[in-house]
Automatic annotation (TrEMBL):
GO terms for biological process: maltodextrin transmembrane transport; maltose transport. It comes from Paenibacillus stellifer. Belongs to the bacterial solute-binding protein 1 family. It comes from the Bacteria. The keyword Nuclease does not apply. This is ABC transporter substrate-binding protein.
């Protein structure tokens, strides 16, 4: 099915939906050759946002939209909604709803015709949203989205080969550091971080060279990825293949365990509040934390830098977890064409730059790192470099059976328990949980 035919079919779906006020018609997947698809993607990447092309998707007569997002995205949406309404003469109402509330309300308000037309969800909600029949594929703008957005982001909002989301921003974590205390050489390898910390540490005065959340697998994942460990096989889609106790994972967790030498505290004591407070007081030199803290660390009494995680002694640079927030079009929308047009509009280069300026959300679009407001922010630039070494958190249902066993395993490993025995036990618990889940 070629691009134009798919778009014509999408338009026809919209016409049918106006008549029947029911959702469910979609264009399906493109079966064009790889050569044709690459050529079209390159053309889209070269042309950027093609306004004339976008207007081929005609909104339904009388269309009006409701958009849901959490508190942190409301200010931007209120502004961009005015622009969209002025351009397309489509009223847009923005309502504050956090992601968990959105998912719950879709189950009740969706069938009742009261739900939003456009949602904003983290990518790890996608499996549930698709299973519940809550969201429509991103079909009309599929090729543009695949060409213009970071590959990690695109993969994160794709389920079983079908693209659903319109990526907005990426979140991950890297190393914040106090420039008054730390040199670039101190950050050039994990061994150097350890050496620096040995000279800087003074636990009696609550001074530490390095700190991270120790019992949260989200942050400990680089010690797995950096040693060729993995969570699920087949790019985190095969829950029958768990790699968290393979040879690489065991080696990585042994390195993690050895870091207790420079962080002599119980895993449960290295909380977000503790390390954030120590960092802001100038007592913690290197803080592994999320990009959402860039704003908090931009106005301290000392200058803060941010760099990607360095190589491990094996020469491998680890991947971090990435979270992707994206817009999704509701399957219950009476105005799917208008909703798709809005989702595309708010993920244009101009809109995402405006969003970054207002909220600090780091765009998932390619090439945005060259924009002056982004390029000139050292912490944001460091985060974008880390995105190049990140993978989307697995979004399959079975991932929910990983977090608790790994949190428990991390606590025990940090205490000094045998790494292989602990990981074997954790993986067995995961398998039992997955088995129960799939009954």
């Amino acid at each position: 099915m070629n691009k134009n035919f798919r778009k014509m079919l999408s338009l026809l779906c919209g016409m049918v939906l106006v008549i029947t006020t029911s959702a469910g018609c979609s264009a399906g997947n493109s079966s064009s050759s790889n050569g044709d698809q690459q050529a079209e993607q390159q053309e889209a990447a070269n042309n950027g946002t093609d306004a004339a092309q976008e207007e081929e998707l005609n909104p339904e007569p009388g269309a009006k939209l409701i958009v849901w997002d959490g508190n942190d995205g409301i200010s931007f949406l209120n502004e961009i909604a005015k622009e969209f309404s002025k351009k397309y003469n489509i009223p847009v109402e923005v309502q504050e709803q956090g992601a968990p509330e959105q998912m719950q309300k879709m189950k009740t308000d969706g069938p009742a015709g009261l739900a939003a037309d456009v949602l904003v969800l983290p990518h790890d909600n996608l499996s549930e949203a698709v299973a519940g029949g809550f969201v429509l594929p991103n079909d009309f703008f599929e090729e543009e989205t695949r060409a213009e957005f970071n590959e990690t982001a695109v993969n994160a909002v794709t389920k079983d080969g079908i693209l659903y989301g319109y990526p907005r921003n990426m979140e991950t974590y890297a190393l914040f550091y106090n420039k008054d205390l730390v040199t670039e050489n101190d950050l050039s390898s994990w061994d150097n971080i350890i050496s620096f910390s040995k000279t800087y540490n003074d636990p009696s005065k609550k001074k530490y060279g390095f700190m991270m959340q120790l019992n949260n697998f989200y942050y400990a994942y680089p010690f797995i990825s950096g040693y060729k460990g993995y969570i699920f096989g087949d790019d985190n889609t095969n829950p029958d293949d768990i790699g968290l106790n393979n040879e690489g994972s065991i080696e990585g967790m042994k390195y993690f365990q050895a870091m207790r030498e420079i962080l002599p505290m119980e895993a449960a004591d290295a909380t977000t509040d503790v390390k954030t407070g120590l960092f802001q007081e100038g007592k913690l030199a290197i803080n592994m934390d999320g990009v959402w803290n860039i704003g908090n660390f931009s106005d301290l009494s000392f200058e803060v830098g941010m760099v990607p995680l360095p190589e491990f002694p094996n020469g491998e640079q680890p991947d971090t977890f990435a979270g992707i927030k994206a817009y999704y079009v509701s399957a219950y929308s009476k105005y799917p064409n208008a909703a798709k047009l809005f989702a595309r509009y708010v993920t244009s280069k101009e809109a995402l730059l405006k969003n970054f300026e207002m909220t600090g959300f780091i765009p998932a679009r390619k090439g945005m790192e060259n924009e002056p407001g982004i390029k000139d922010n050292e912490m944001v630039s460091g985060a974008i470099k880390q995105f190049e070494h990140s993978v989307a958190m697995p979004s399959i249902f079975e991932m929910q059976q990983v977090w608790a066993p790994m949190a428990n395993a991390l606590e025990l490993i940090w205490k000094g328990e045998d790494v292989k025995t602990t990981l074997d036990r954790a993986v067995e618990n995961m398998k039992q949980g997955i088995k129960t889940l799939n009954k």
